[in-house]
Specification:
By secondary structure, this protein is mainly beta. It has one domain (2-10, 46-219): 3-Layer(bba) Sandwich (Glucose Oxidase, domain 1). The protein has helices at residues 121-124, 131-140, 160-171; strands at residues 2-5, 13-16, 19-22, 24-29, 39-43, 51-53, 74-75, 78-82, 90-91, 106-110, 128-129, 146-149, 181-184, 195-202, 210-219. Strands 1, 6, 7, 8, 10, 12, 13, 14 and 15 form a nine-stranded mixed sheet that branches. The termini are close together.
Length: 221
Amino acid sequence: MTYKYLSYPLDLKIPVYGKTASIDIKSVKSIDNGDSANVYAFAMENHWGTHVDAPNHFFVEGKKIADYPAGFWFFKSPQVIDIELLSSEMLISGSWFEQIKHDTDCLLLRSGWGMRRREEAYCIENPGIHPDVGRELRIKYPTIRALGIDWVSVSSYRNRELGREAHRALLREYGIGEPPVIIEDMDLSCDMAGLRNVWVLPLRVCGLDSAPCTIIGGFGD
């Protein structure tokens, strides 16, 4: 089996929802300055870069990122579906929806928007997901524990109210099945054929609703 990253490394400049952000990185100790080791401090928001949204992102009583057991983050039946989305388009149910397998536990939607990650449009003209899709996923495919996308947010920046409702439809605790976590800003640019399993490794900080994460896909036998 071979392994590939399905997440972006954190960089000084990151395209985020509605803007480009800068991570504040400071040198605490430096070998060049005579210290025995290099040590850095950095600050960033928890929804920057590839990150996973837990229910507490929109619901006070919802699960937080550190509430999940270790086994939750391993997905044995991932599925990639290719879709085409225009600027600010809201994804609705269609032929792609019928392609979902009934044992899928991690659904990855690949739109190709990752190719535009260095463009301003990635931040402010991103597509979104209609709330009805979230509701239908919960009803028809309750085995899905994670929904991953290769654009900046489930919420279209030009359709923010619908985007908020889409988050709520997916993350609401009550309903059929457990609410799936949402993974935004994934790197799905590699050849995804032969994907066998997925590890999602969030930064576990107590009290946070969501967190940046590293994602690794296993390919082949």
